[in-house]
Specification:
single chain, about 270 residues, alpha/beta, TIM Barrel, binds fe (ii) ion
Length: about 270
Protein backbone atom coordinates (compact mmCIF):
# COMPACT_ATOMS: atom_id res chain seq x y z
CA UNK A 1 0.00 0.00 0.00
CA UNK A 2 1.47 3.31 -1.13
CA UNK A 3 -0.28 6.57 -0.38
CA UNK A 4 0.06 10.10 -1.72
CA UNK A 5 -2.19 12.88 -0.47
CA UNK A 6 -2.76 15.69 -2.97
CA UNK A 7 -5.10 17.73 -0.73
CA UNK A 8 -4.24 18.92 2.79
CA UNK A 9 -4.40 22.00 4.97
CA UNK A 10 -1.35 21.19 7.06
CA UNK A 11 0.42 24.55 6.67
CA UNK A 12 -0.18 26.66 9.78
CA UNK A 13 -1.17 30.34 9.95
CA UNK A 14 -2.73 30.51 6.46
CA UNK A 15 -6.24 29.14 6.46
CA UNK A 16 -8.61 27.08 8.61
CA UNK A 17 -6.19 24.14 8.70
CA UNK A 18 -3.38 23.56 11.23
CA UNK A 19 -3.48 26.22 13.92
CA UNK A 20 0.23 26.37 14.75
CA UNK A 21 3.57 24.60 14.23
CA UNK A 22 2.80 22.09 16.95
CA UNK A 23 -0.43 20.99 15.31
CA UNK A 24 1.17 20.91 11.85
CA UNK A 25 3.96 18.67 13.18
CA UNK A 26 1.47 16.39 14.90
CA UNK A 27 -0.44 16.09 11.63
CA UNK A 28 2.80 15.18 9.85
CA UNK A 29 3.52 12.49 12.45
CA UNK A 30 -0.01 11.25 11.94
CA UNK A 31 0.65 11.02 8.17
CA UNK A 32 3.89 9.10 8.74
CA UNK A 33 2.19 6.65 11.09
CA UNK A 34 -0.57 6.18 8.55
CA UNK A 35 1.95 5.18 5.86
CA UNK A 36 1.58 8.28 3.69
CA UNK A 37 4.65 8.80 1.48
CA UNK A 38 3.97 12.28 0.20
CA UNK A 39 1.71 15.17 1.19
CA UNK A 40 0.86 18.19 -0.94
CA UNK A 41 0.14 21.30 1.14
CA UNK A 42 -2.87 22.97 -0.48
CA UNK A 43 -3.88 26.09 1.47
CA UNK A 44 -7.13 27.79 0.42
CA UNK A 45 -6.63 30.55 -2.14
CA UNK A 46 -9.87 32.47 -1.96
CA UNK A 47 -9.01 35.51 -4.09
CA UNK A 48 -6.35 37.23 -6.16
CA UNK A 49 -5.19 38.83 -2.92
CA UNK A 50 -4.35 35.40 -1.50
CA UNK A 51 -2.27 34.63 -4.58
CA UNK A 52 -0.19 37.68 -3.71
CA UNK A 53 0.68 35.91 -0.45
CA UNK A 54 2.65 33.33 -2.37
CA UNK A 55 6.00 34.35 -0.86
CA UNK A 56 4.64 34.03 2.69
CA UNK A 57 3.04 30.68 1.90
CA UNK A 58 6.31 29.46 0.41
CA UNK A 59 8.23 30.54 3.54
CA UNK A 60 5.88 28.63 5.82
CA UNK A 61 6.09 25.61 3.55
CA UNK A 62 9.90 25.75 3.61
CA UNK A 63 9.74 26.06 7.41
CA UNK A 64 7.56 22.97 7.74
CA UNK A 65 9.76 20.99 5.39
CA UNK A 66 12.81 21.91 7.46
CA UNK A 67 11.15 20.93 10.75
CA UNK A 68 9.93 17.64 9.29
CA UNK A 69 13.44 16.78 8.08
CA UNK A 70 14.98 17.82 11.39
CA UNK A 71 12.62 15.55 13.34
CA UNK A 72 13.30 12.66 10.97
CA UNK A 73 9.70 12.35 9.81
CA UNK A 74 9.88 10.39 6.57
CA UNK A 75 7.11 12.07 4.61
CA UNK A 76 7.88 14.06 1.48
CA UNK A 77 6.25 17.49 1.28
CA UNK A 78 5.13 19.34 -1.83
CA UNK A 79 3.41 22.68 -2.31
CA UNK A 80 0.28 23.62 -4.22
CA UNK A 81 -3.02 25.24 -3.35
CA UNK A 82 -6.78 24.75 -3.39
CA UNK A 83 -8.07 27.55 -5.58
CA UNK A 84 -11.57 28.83 -4.97
CA UNK A 85 -13.11 29.41 -8.38
CA UNK A 86 -12.30 32.96 -9.58
CA UNK A 87 -12.37 34.90 -12.84
CA UNK A 88 -8.65 34.77 -13.57
CA UNK A 89 -6.00 32.31 -12.44
CA UNK A 90 -2.37 32.99 -13.28
CA UNK A 91 -0.94 29.52 -13.84
CA UNK A 92 2.60 30.90 -13.86
CA UNK A 93 2.37 31.33 -10.11
CA UNK A 94 4.29 28.67 -8.22
CA UNK A 95 1.41 27.62 -6.02
CA UNK A 96 -1.18 27.47 -8.83
CA UNK A 97 -0.45 23.90 -9.92
CA UNK A 98 0.22 20.97 -7.60
CA UNK A 99 3.93 20.50 -6.89
CA UNK A 100 4.60 23.00 -9.71
CA UNK A 101 3.71 20.34 -12.29
CA UNK A 102 2.37 23.02 -14.66
CA UNK A 103 -0.66 20.97 -15.70
CA UNK A 104 -2.93 19.92 -12.82
CA UNK A 105 -4.51 22.31 -10.34
CA UNK A 106 -6.92 21.78 -7.47
CA UNK A 107 -10.11 23.83 -7.76
CA UNK A 108 -12.98 24.33 -5.36
CA UNK A 109 -16.53 25.55 -6.03
CA UNK A 110 -19.14 27.01 -3.65
CA UNK A 111 -20.78 24.20 -1.66
CA UNK A 112 -24.36 25.45 -1.90
CA UNK A 113 -24.56 26.59 -5.50
CA UNK A 114 -26.97 24.67 -7.76
CA UNK A 115 -26.94 26.78 -10.95
CA UNK A 116 -24.88 25.95 -14.01
CA UNK A 117 -23.40 29.34 -14.88
CA UNK A 118 -20.30 29.29 -12.67
CA UNK A 119 -19.27 25.82 -13.83
CA UNK A 120 -19.95 26.73 -17.48
CA UNK A 121 -18.04 30.00 -17.20
CA UNK A 122 -15.13 28.27 -15.51
CA UNK A 123 -14.62 25.79 -18.37
CA UNK A 124 -15.11 28.52 -20.99
CA UNK A 125 -12.24 30.60 -19.60
CA UNK A 126 -9.85 27.71 -19.09
CA UNK A 127 -6.78 27.55 -21.32
CA UNK A 128 -5.98 24.32 -23.07
CA UNK A 129 -2.90 23.07 -21.28
CA UNK A 130 -4.22 22.80 -17.76
CA UNK A 131 -6.45 20.17 -16.17
CA UNK A 132 -8.73 21.02 -13.25
CA UNK A 133 -8.84 18.52 -10.42
CA UNK A 134 -12.18 19.33 -8.82
CA UNK A 135 -11.99 19.02 -5.03
CA UNK A 136 -14.74 17.01 -3.29
CA UNK A 137 -17.53 17.12 -5.94
CA UNK A 138 -19.66 14.98 -3.61
CA UNK A 139 -19.94 17.95 -1.24
CA UNK A 140 -21.48 20.31 -3.80
CA UNK A 141 -25.23 20.88 -3.92
CA UNK A 142 -24.67 21.24 -7.68
CA UNK A 143 -23.75 17.54 -7.90
CA UNK A 144 -26.05 16.33 -5.11
CA UNK A 145 -29.10 17.80 -6.85
CA UNK A 146 -28.17 16.24 -10.22
CA UNK A 147 -25.39 13.65 -9.88
CA UNK A 148 -25.25 13.24 -13.68
CA UNK A 149 -23.52 16.63 -13.74
CA UNK A 150 -20.40 14.87 -12.47
CA UNK A 151 -20.35 13.02 -15.78
CA UNK A 152 -20.56 16.34 -17.65
CA UNK A 153 -17.61 17.76 -15.70
CA UNK A 154 -15.47 14.71 -16.50
CA UNK A 155 -16.55 14.89 -20.14
CA UNK A 156 -15.35 18.50 -20.21
CA UNK A 157 -11.91 17.27 -19.11
CA UNK A 158 -11.88 17.59 -15.32
CA UNK A 159 -10.62 14.99 -12.89
CA UNK A 160 -12.63 14.50 -9.72
CA UNK A 161 -11.08 14.23 -6.25
CA UNK A 162 -13.20 12.59 -3.58
CA UNK A 163 -12.57 13.22 0.12
CA UNK A 164 -11.49 10.14 2.09
CA UNK A 165 -13.94 11.03 4.88
CA UNK A 166 -16.91 11.09 2.48
CA UNK A 167 -16.64 7.33 2.02
CA UNK A 168 -17.14 6.61 5.70
CA UNK A 169 -19.90 9.12 6.36
CA UNK A 170 -17.96 12.05 7.86
CA UNK A 171 -20.21 14.40 5.85
CA UNK A 172 -23.39 12.35 6.32
CA UNK A 173 -25.09 9.30 4.86
CA UNK A 174 -26.24 10.99 1.66
CA UNK A 175 -22.76 12.15 0.73
CA UNK A 176 -21.51 8.66 1.50
CA UNK A 177 -24.08 7.10 -0.85
CA UNK A 178 -23.32 9.68 -3.54
CA UNK A 179 -19.60 8.92 -3.19
CA UNK A 180 -20.29 5.22 -3.79
CA UNK A 181 -22.28 6.01 -6.91
CA UNK A 182 -19.54 8.28 -8.23
CA UNK A 183 -16.92 5.55 -7.79
CA UNK A 184 -19.28 2.97 -9.35
CA UNK A 185 -19.68 5.25 -12.38
CA UNK A 186 -15.89 5.76 -12.86
CA UNK A 187 -16.34 9.41 -11.92
CA UNK A 188 -13.64 9.47 -9.23
CA UNK A 189 -9.95 9.69 -10.14
CA UNK A 190 -8.15 10.50 -6.93
CA UNK A 191 -8.92 10.45 -3.20
CA UNK A 192 -7.39 12.98 -0.81
CA UNK A 193 -7.61 13.61 2.92
CA UNK A 194 -8.55 17.33 2.79
CA UNK A 195 -7.02 17.24 6.28
CA UNK A 196 -7.75 20.25 8.47
CA UNK A 197 -6.96 18.95 11.96
CA UNK A 198 -6.03 15.89 14.00
CA UNK A 199 -9.44 14.41 14.71
CA UNK A 200 -12.42 15.40 12.56
CA UNK A 201 -10.52 15.63 9.27
CA UNK A 202 -7.14 14.02 9.97
CA UNK A 203 -4.10 13.54 7.73
CA UNK A 204 -4.90 9.87 7.17
CA UNK A 205 -5.69 7.84 4.07
CA UNK A 206 -5.10 4.19 5.00
CA UNK A 207 -8.65 3.58 6.29
CA UNK A 208 -10.10 4.91 3.02
CA UNK A 209 -7.57 2.86 1.01
CA UNK A 210 -8.71 -0.30 2.82
CA UNK A 211 -12.33 0.65 2.31
CA UNK A 212 -11.84 1.14 -1.45
CA UNK A 213 -9.75 -2.05 -1.72
CA UNK A 214 -12.47 -4.09 0.01
CA UNK A 215 -15.35 -2.66 -1.99
CA UNK A 216 -13.84 -2.00 -5.43
CA UNK A 217 -10.54 -3.94 -5.37
CA UNK A 218 -6.87 -3.11 -4.83
CA UNK A 219 -6.37 -2.00 -8.42
CA UNK A 220 -8.85 0.86 -7.93
CA UNK A 221 -7.38 1.70 -4.54
CA UNK A 222 -3.87 1.92 -5.99
CA UNK A 223 -5.14 4.11 -8.79
CA UNK A 224 -6.91 6.56 -6.42
CA UNK A 225 -4.25 6.78 -3.74
CA UNK A 226 -0.97 6.30 -5.57
CA UNK A 227 -0.90 5.95 -9.36
CA UNK A 228 -3.04 8.94 -10.32
CA UNK A 229 -1.57 11.18 -7.59
CA UNK A 230 1.93 10.25 -8.84
CA UNK A 231 0.98 11.20 -12.40
CA UNK A 232 -0.64 14.42 -11.23
CA UNK A 233 2.46 15.51 -9.33
CA UNK A 234 4.68 14.63 -12.30
CA UNK A 235 2.37 16.48 -14.71
CA UNK A 236 1.90 13.27 -16.73
CA UNK A 237 -1.17 12.35 -18.74
CA UNK A 238 -3.78 10.32 -16.89
CA UNK A 239 -5.86 7.76 -18.76
CA UNK A 240 -9.16 7.33 -16.98
CA UNK A 241 -11.73 4.56 -17.14
CA UNK A 242 -14.63 5.69 -19.33
CA UNK A 243 -17.19 7.43 -17.15
CA UNK A 244 -20.70 6.03 -16.93
CA UNK A 245 -23.76 8.26 -16.95
CA UNK A 246 -26.18 8.11 -14.06
CA UNK A 247 -29.46 6.56 -15.08
CA UNK A 248 -32.86 7.60 -13.82
CA UNK A 249 -33.20 4.36 -11.85
CA UNK A 250 -33.27 4.32 -8.06
CA UNK A 251 -35.71 7.15 -7.59
CA UNK A 252 -35.79 6.73 -3.83
CA UNK A 253 -32.14 7.75 -3.57
CA UNK A 254 -32.83 10.80 -5.73
CA UNK A 255 -35.63 11.85 -3.41
CA UNK A 256 -33.32 11.54 -0.45
CA UNK A 257 -30.79 13.83 -2.12
CA UNK A 258 -33.56 16.36 -2.70
CA UNK A 259 -34.39 16.30 0.99
CA UNK A 260 -30.75 16.68 1.85
CA UNK A 261 -30.36 19.83 -0.23
CA UNK A 262 -33.31 21.40 1.53
CA UNK A 263 -31.84 20.42 4.88
CA UNK A 264 -28.58 22.11 3.89
CA UNK A 265 -30.38 25.32 3.04
CA UNK A 266 -32.07 25.41 6.42
CA UNK A 267 -28.62 25.49 8.02
FE1 LIG B 1 -9.62 21.61 1.13
Amino acid sequence: MKLIDIHSHVLPFIDDGAEDWDMAMQMMRQAEKDGIDSVVCTPHILSEKDFKNEAKIYDIFAGLRQKVTKKGISVNLELGSEIYVQPYIDFKQKIATLAQNGRYFLIEFPLNLTQDFLFRQFFDTLTENVVPVIAHPERYAYIQSKPERAYELVKKGALLQLNAGSLIGVFGQHIKELSFRLVDANLVHVIGSDAHDLKTRPLKLSYAYQFVANRWGTEKANEFFYLNPTRILAGEIIYVDPPVTFSAENKSVKTKWGQFIRALRRD
